Amino acid sequence: MLITIIKMIAVLVAALIVGNSFLGELKKARDLGLPWYRPYLSPAGIVILIVILVIPIILKIMQG
């Protein structure tokens, strides 16, 4: 039970760090007038895109 809670907290903290990093890249791109896709090419943006693309595949595999 305790280990499960620790794992959940670790995932939430990681998501918070990646999200804040992406938001910083987004604000920087807007301030500099860079193209809309520029934040998605940052490390945080790439992680977010990979997660968005991989989760449906993992769910499909787990369903059988």
Explain the overall architecture:
It is a single chain. The two termini are 27 Å apart. The chain is mainly alpha-helical and 64 residues long. Helix 1 packs across helix 2. The protein has helices at 2-32, 43-63. The radius of gyration is 15 Å and the shape is flat. The mean pLDDT is 95. The chain contains two helices and no strands. It has one domain (2-63).
Summarize the structure.
This protein has helices at 2-32, 43-63.
How do the helices and strands line up, and which of them pair or pack?
Blueprint: H1 2-32, H2 43-63
Question: Tags for this entry?
Answer:
64 residues
Rg from alpha-carbon coordinates? 15 Å
Extended strand count: 0
**Percent in strands:** under 5%
Q: Characterize the main sheet.
A: none
The ordered string of helix (H) and strand (E) elements is: HH
Shape: flat
Roughly how much helix do the residues carry, as a percent range?
over 70%
End-to-end C-alpha gap: 27 Å
Task: Figure out the total of helices.
Answer: 2
Mean pLDDT over all positions: 95
Structural class: mainly alpha
How many domains make up the coordinates? 1
Low-confidence stretches: none
